[in-house]
């Protein structure tokens, strides 16, 4: 493709398993349209990951895939895992054998999951009519390379353990991201922990308090995870930035997605703080709907928008995608996870977003 600018981005496209390839197809189409419109070049190079890679090569993260990621400007990721591979040894399974190593290898310590109830389609939310009046616009800032997912593990026939460890350095760097994000939003951080029980949470709370002193304009509150899970459903509008460790952020972000309308709406950016990132839907491979053409492609498409924003600084292109998505949601062009009566499938929703972007072009 010829462009008027010299900007050209190399993207490793790791579609993975289940609905991953179905929703990735739609995100790639959207990316091609905005590349034309905003005059930048793209190289989208596919590579195997997860269960698909195990089937083809015996490894969840083949060396060729890792090398491609290292040679790329960003990684666009689908999802991995499914019942076919759950019997494998834990380290060989798609999730632990590919996604977690990618996060660690590239030091993607910061996971951003923005969730909102779009007013124009609040009436389709599963929580309607409550959400229509309450509203929600939150950013979940989740620590992604520490905590219990990465600590020492072990098991015998009768016992098993996982270890949660956090260092001050790990907590400080994710806390800074949360406060800086809050400064650009509504100046409020709610730090989630279980400091009434866990040592790591006590260190978390002390460290977050110290970081907060550098951001006097931002209000900090602490909330226990159990209360936060309840408060999110009861009154989501009270939150702005939610600062979470790896486990708590994983769980709360699915809840945020449900309040927004569906897991199929929630994108994520996993960042190293230096411009490199992996961008993926917050949800998984959805084996229950894979292959049916009904998966919601919006989380994948919005993840591509986050990639344009955070890795390439293409803010106008990112916004154009987000506005096209909102336009389609407002017209109720949605998959069945949002409206069970809908006749739109994955490809139809993707096509509507592409058509909206093309119309705006003219
Ligand atoms: N980042 C990743 O690759 C992740 C992978 N997983 C893996 O995915 C597999 C399935 O895990 P589950 O617990 O079932 O979680 P899941 O997130 O795949 O699905 C949970 C529910 O949400 C629905 N859902 C998710 N994305 C959707 C979309 N785009 N459109 C419509 N509905 C959607 C599914 O149909 C399902 O009912 C497991 O192997 C799990 O380990 C889970 C989470 C993240
Ligand atoms: C492998 C899991 C930790 C993935 C997941 O559930 C997530 O990142 O939300
Ligand atoms: Mg999760």
Describe this structure in words.
It is a single chain. With 362 residues, the chain is an alpha/beta fold. It folds into two domains: 1-126 and 261-362, Isopropylmalate Dehydrogenase; 131-260, Isopropylmalate Dehydrogenase (3-Layer(aba) Sandwich). It contains twelve helices and twelve strands. Strands 2-1-3-12-11-4-5-10-8-9 form a ten-stranded mixed beta sheet, sandwiched between helices. Strands 6-7 form a two-stranded antiparallel sheet. Strand 11 and strand 12 form a beta hairpin. Helix 1 packs across helix 10 and helix 10 (298-310) packs antiparallel against helix 11. The longest helix is centred in the N-terminal third of the chain and has 19 residues, at 20-38. The protein is globular. The mean pLDDT is 95. Bound molecules: 1,4-dihydronicotinamide adenine dinucleotide, 2-OXO-4-methylpentanoic acid and magnesium ion. 1,4-dihydronicotinamide adenine dinucleotide binds next to helix 4. Residues 250, 254 line the site of magnesium ion.
Précis, in short:
With 362 residues, the chain is an alpha/beta fold. The protein has helices at residues 20-38, 50-57, 63-71, 94-105, 130-134, 168-183, 199-212, 225-234, 246-260, 298-310, 315-330, 346-361, and strands spanning 8-16, 41-46, 74-79, 110-116, 137-143, 153-155, 160-162, 188-193, 219-224, 241-244, 267-271, 277-281.
